[in-house]
Amino acid sequence: MSFLPVVLALAMWAGCARGAPPPAEFARIGGHDYVRLADWAKGHNLELRWLKPEESLQLSNHSARILLTVDHREAQISGIEVWLLFPAVLHNGSVYLAQLDLQTTLQPLLSPPRNQPGLRIKTVCLDPGHGGKDPGNRVGPNQEKQYTLLLAQEVGQQLVRAGLKVFFTRSTDTFVELPTRPEVAKRRGADLLLSLHFNSADASRDSVQGAEVYCLTPAGASSTNGRGEGGGGGPCPGNRCNEKNLLLAYQLQKAVTRNLGSEDRGVRRARFAVLRDAVMPATLIEAGFMSHPAEGRRIFSSAYRQKLARAIVEGVLAYKRQVEM
Fold first, then answer.
1. Which of 13, 118, 189, 250 has its CA 20 to 30 A from that of 51?
2. Strands, E assignment, 32-168
3. Regarding the domain delimited by 123-323, which CATH topology (the fold level of the hierarchy) does it fall under?
4. What CATH number labels 22-110?
């Protein structure tokens, strides 16, 4: 009888060895851990092929298509722009991707994280950006704080109609300190936190437009916002939700750009205060550029904000369906 477990163990090992992909090759590049992409792709049933040799490539299967460019951080995942934490690089004749990107950028979209059984998305905290003495961006007489509040009210009404509970960090033109906003969401037991904003460009105002959605930058990586915070410092409370942050941001970016035809400026990372201290999945939505002549006029229109709110709600519900499966 003592011989049997050994025989079974050897048989199981042989079977696993035949069916398992070879171990991925790792490399230390630029002070960060990278993985050979061909190895990772094989382990995830993705076909890798070069579109332009040593320049651009595609990973694909029946449900996903990932486009990457060597030495760039911009990627496209199933048609939506997503900024990587680090660029894809060529190393010893093979393309490598940062392990942190595989874990917190690609993996959450290929294999969405799930809630614990029975745990539902019930309550959403809406955070209208700015307010009171902080007007936000200004274009003529139009102040960002006014339109973020109007958008939040519209999103809130539509979320309630979809069966969710909603509360706001502010419901009037009042100033709310940045650290207070995620604290309100925590105190009220929110399952999600959405901070709503509109963008503005100082230069090229006639050409810069589109939507971008931010989630928190993982520890050890640089941000992709305008200020581009570096990778120093330890993790923030919000980093405990890295994978769900990314998934939520992706679904919101997808819904806004596809439903409204907005220019896709991508899912991005930042260490904004409202994201750093959130203990639930959180995003900051820059829903368009007030400074752009055409997009600004749309933002100031109540009919357009209703459509924008509908897209945001669709993104929330798409996320909800994925994590509750």
1. 250
2. 32-36, 47-52, 56-60, 65-69, 74-77, 80-83, 89-91, 94-98, 123-128, 138-139, 142-143, 165-168
3. Aminopeptidase (3.40.630)
4. 3.30.457.10
